[in-house]
Amino acid sequence: MEQTTLQDALSADEITAANELTRRWLTGRAEVPAVASGLGIWPLLAVLATGAVEATLEELLEAAGIDIGQAAAVPTALLDAVQSAPALSLALAAWAGPRVALDPDWVAGLPGDAIGALTGDPAVDAPALDEWADRNTGGLIKKMPVSLDESIELLLASALSVRTKWRTPFEEHHGLFQTGPWKDRGKVLSASYREEVLRVGPDTAVLTVPGHDDIDVLLALGREEARPQEVVSTLIDAAADPRWGRSASDLTADAPSIGVNRYEYRSPDPQTAPETNAVVPAFTLDNELDLLEDAAVLGLELASDDEFAQFDRLAAQRLYVSQAKQVCTAVFSATGFEAAAVTAFGMDWMGSAPPEPIHKHRRAVVTFDRPFAYLARHRPSGLILIGGWVDNPGG
User: Fold this and answer.
1) What is the mean pLDDT for each group of 10 consecutive residues in the chain (395 residues)?
2) CB 165, CB 335: distance < 8 Å
3) How many Cβ atoms sit within 10 Å of the Cβ of residue 149?
4) What DSSP designation does 294 have?
5) What CATH number does domain 165-282+355-390 carry, 2.30.39.10, 1.20.1250.20, 3.90.950.10, 3.40.50.150?
6) First to last CA, the chain
């Protein structure tokens, strides 16, 4: 039987809702994280919503951008559809302690074999949870990002990973940046494209680096004085709208865009496609986030209140979200991109010489030699998988 694709499993409105959660979360923080995944949070909010009532339910649904019917359907639909995307992996799971009596209807709504058991002994539980995180991210993340030193009666978690190889590999260089904050630092990558990969707006240049298996990684360079939140928001707009900005081919040599220069050269062959050279730092980023610091944006204010949380459809006992954390990693290299995020909600009680050149060519050169935004998306659906702000490439 043919597998359902992501773009078929989720409606356009649901994909927009997931992407808008990413936008509100990343741009609502005082500092944009180096790497984070709104998609890692989104299905967990849906799972929580199916066990919530009244104001707690309303807050979770508003944050996730869905209704209660969608909350019940989205996690399973997302898991099933990801199986048709070779570059992606997604897992959801829940573990309950021996003192929790889960509502059978809530359990029945969870995907497949999602329920496991907690013993209450960290020496036993921690290795099992870490093994799950390691296995479901292909070894990119080794540990579950919760503290078992604190009481946890129910744990909900998602594990997301993406891996792709570039359609056009980069060449590696050292010390290619002659100015700016990364002068003479780290590994610098360059690639040449003969396709439409660079679009420019008044304040931002957006490069699309195409990968195999329907994955793109988009990089956005804004004005030096622009806030990272503004650049991230513009990048999300560009990722969602193929008509955003204009082609770099329309630039003139005397009116370059942000981070983009144009030059002309002569070749024996006529120009048949846009030409772009990209210069990008390799980067390796890791991050751990306490999501309760973003409770208002993520719809967790009431859910994390040990007096007012209402999860009457989840368990017989009164529970609240006592921990909410995400750990992420992202690696942008000469050959490809790989990234992963584990998100956890812990709940407690309450060659030869060329001929003479005769044809004029125009080429754009975009250089990411200072901090920029990035995201990885599933190309056919437009679903944003992971992203952040590169302030220190570390590559």
Assistant:
1) 83 97 97 98 98 98 98 95 95 94 94 88 96 97 93 96 98 82 86 94 95 98 96 98 88 73 81 88 96 97 96 95 98 98 94 54 88 97 98 80
2) yes
3) 8
4) G
5) 2.30.39.10
6) 43
pLDDT at 59: 98
Output the pLDDT for position 273.
Answer: 82
Amino acid residing at 103: D
Distance from CA of residue 270 to its chain's centroid? Answer: 39
How far apart are alpha carbons 230 and 208 in whole angstroms?
A: 19
Amino acid at 214: D
d(CA 287, CA 293) in angstroms, rounded, equals 15
157 within 8 A of 342, measured Cβ to Cβ? yes
Q: What is d(CA 53, CA 51) in angstroms, rounded to the nearest whole number?
A: 7
Q: Cα dihedral sign for 56, 61, 67, 68?
A: negative
State which amino acid sits at residue 255.
A
Full DSSP string of 84-114: T-TTEEEEEEEEE-TT--B-HHHHHTS-TT-
Q: How big is the CA angle at 297 (ends 95 and 145), to the nearest 5 degrees?
A: 35
pLDDT at 205: 95
Identical fold, 6-163+286-330+339-346 and 165-282+355-390: no
Amino acid at 283: F
* CA distance linking residue 57 with residue 232, whole number of Å: 29
> Which pLDDT belongs to residue 256?
62
For 326-348, b/e burial (b = at least 16 CB within 10 A) is bbbbbbbbbebbbbbbbbbbbbb
Domain boundaries along the sequence of the chain: 6-163+286-330+339-346, 165-282+355-390
| Third-level CATH fold of 6-163+286-330+339-346 | Antithrombin; Chain I, domain 2 (3.30.497)
Amino acid identity of residue 30, one-letter, is A
Q: What's the CA angle centered on 315, arms 114 and 40, to 5 degrees?
A: 40
